[in-house]
Amino acid sequence: MSAASAARAVSHPNRQVVPIAELAAFQTELLSWFDDSKRELDWRTTRDPYRVWVSEIMLQQTRVATVIPYYRRFLASFPTIHLLAKARSDVVLRHWAGLGYYSRARNLHRAAKEIVARHAGKFPRSLQVALQLPGIGEYTAAAVLSIAYGLPHAVLDGNVARVLARLGAIRGDLRRPSRWHALGRSANELLATQAAGDWNQAMMELGATICTPRAPQCTKCPVSRWCRVHTLGIALRVPAIRRKRRSIRVVISAAVLLDPRGRTLLVSNEGEHSLLFSGLWHFPAVRSAKPAREKLARYLRECFGLSTQLEPLRTARHTVTFRRIVLAPFLARVPKLPRASGARKPSLTNLERIAVSSATKKIASAAKAALRA
Ligand code: SF4
Fold first, then answer.
1. What atom of ligand 1 comes closest to residue 228's alpha carbon?
2. What domains sit in the chain, N to C, each tagged with a CATH number?
3. Reported pTM
4. Nearest one of 356, 366, 363, 362 to 281, comparing CA atoms
5. 3-class SS at 15?
């Protein structure tokens, strides 16, 4: 089909994605494919709402392979919602350190406390009530309620939206509110209500493993006979590629202070670096256009009353959403660490016991490598 005629054949977003008369066959195909082909994942062996919820939060914006070890460690330390609710927030954050998007961990912890205090430790079964909890949006609520309780709520995330758009040959920006809303309606129309949890996971699994953004494997797809873009030969053109936000370059110069006992100084101010270090403990640092020894030395003098030599270390790269960050660490050997309210003074070789971000770990690695050399 020519590009022009394919474009004309594209559907209106409100059209039924799969004809009602064929819905039962469509559902059977997808569910049996999921049954046969699904990846064996820890969170698929449980219907415990707490465990399902933890997995759904961890999986947001994060690859399955990355999540698995975090999920295991987290549940080994907090096997019940009551233990999570009772935990200190820095201990919870320490278990999240390296997984990124730390507001997820803070909200998970706050929501656990609320569920224990107001819902007798049980994840609410009502969609409206679940949506009141910190960090729970439409997607997470629908996922937990369908998988844990079998309630008929369809999920809509990027994977499901792409599958729906391709099945129905729906063009345009899927995240446009009216289009996203229409996709939500389509997701609910297709939902196999008698197996809502499996159905939601099957749709997501299809998007994650077969109907992938850049290389849909239509010949292996269990629902290809209902797929309009496959019929039209335009699978790669739907959905339209979203224009990425332009990335910006940020340079962070950080001071690794080191006393004769091997201890260093970490701060957790909520100032300009809070976002870049996810609000976690971090080395004293300044932001600039290029590695900035002078600016960092001035900052140490003004904030900590410290005048010291700063030895440049190897730089490291780090990315947080659209920010490309260059980490420029400097080592400063000091006879005594300065006094600073709210600061911590751990051993440089033992930062695992503290909630620090991946950026801070990279800076610490550069310092440890220099000390070993
Ligand atoms: Fe996606 Fe191809 Fe299956 Fe259509 S046939 S849903 S484009 S994998």
1. 4
2. 3-232 (1.10.340.30), 248-372 (3.90.79.10)
3. 0.84
4. 356
5. coil
